[in-house]
Amino acid sequence: MTYDVVVVGSGPAGLSAAVTLGRALRTVLVIDAGEPRNAPAAGVHNFLTRDGQSPSEFRALGRTEVERYGGEFRDATVVAVTGEADAFEVHLADGSTVTARRVLVTSGLKDVLPDIPGLAERWGKTVLHCPYCHGFEVRGEAVGVIASGSMAMHAGLLWSQWTSDLMLFLNESFAPDEEQTRKLTNRGVRLVPGRVTAVGDDGVHLADGTVIPRAHLVVQTRLEGRADFLEPLGVKLVEHATGNATHLAAEDPSGRTAVRGLWVAGNVTDPMAQVISAAAAGVGAGAMINMDLVEADAG
């Protein structure tokens, strides 16, 4: 069959869009590779009525809701999208193909950690990124921000809202000027010079052999959109305005792209979106896709 809409990705944006489209009586297939970005996290935050819920439970409940409105799921990896509006072909890694009138990409992004031994295995547990996601849970504790570029200034200032015991490890990648140093000092942030060589349960290891204990660490990851499968349509990931991410550009707030019939929503187009805002974007995209189909059928 040809689905009205194929949604690539079942994060909050994809699930919300699928519910919206299902309630609009559209045939919807959600294809998901099973690689959720927030899998290491203990819980979802800043999502009204869902605070603290595990990401896996959030997705499971979302799937149930989509299925309630007739949506279908397929656990698979999309390797390419070809064709055009009303006749898109979504090619999967197992060699099969699904056809759709419209495609919504909500495939999210991945975090690329700084190349420091010990970070990856602690990611999402004691190594953190977003203070709005984790700050309250580690409030007042010993936190260290490991610099990997100019965004360290932003992180140092921001995380000082949640703890007075904050160190900024300069890591030979950030040299604050006099004004920046004054602001950080005014917020009680202690600057630690030297290159970070590793992190362990005992703390942050510096090149000179010093080990500084910290209960939690903060790093700025590079955010890379997951959408290489759109290249056959001439759609490529581009650098985000922050300079620290790639994303799919949208033509307007609905997520419409330059390719007719192709929409994007969630972190793949808005790297800074939190769970609740990604979900809202999915609802908006779903509504616009339904209207686009209504207009197409009207002739």
Overview of this structure, please?
24% of the residues lie in helices and 27% in strands. The relative contact order is 0.19. The two termini are 22 Å apart. Helix 1 (12-23) runs parallel beside helix 6. The radius of gyration is 21 Å and the shape is elongated. The protein folds into 2 domains: 2-111 and 222-298, FAD/NAD(P)-binding domain; 114-219, FAD/NAD(P)-binding domain, CATH 3.50.50.60. The protein has helices at 12-23, 55-68, 131-134, 151-159, 178-186, 275-298, and strands spanning 2-8, 28-32, 72-75, 78-84, 87-92, 97-105, 109-112, 127-128, 143-146, 166-169, 189-192, 196-200, 203-206, 211-212, 216-219, 222-225, 238-239, 246-247, 262-264. It has 299 residues and is of the alpha/beta class. The strands form 5 sheets. Strands 1, 2, 3, 4, 5, 6 and 19 form a 7-stranded mixed sheet that branches.
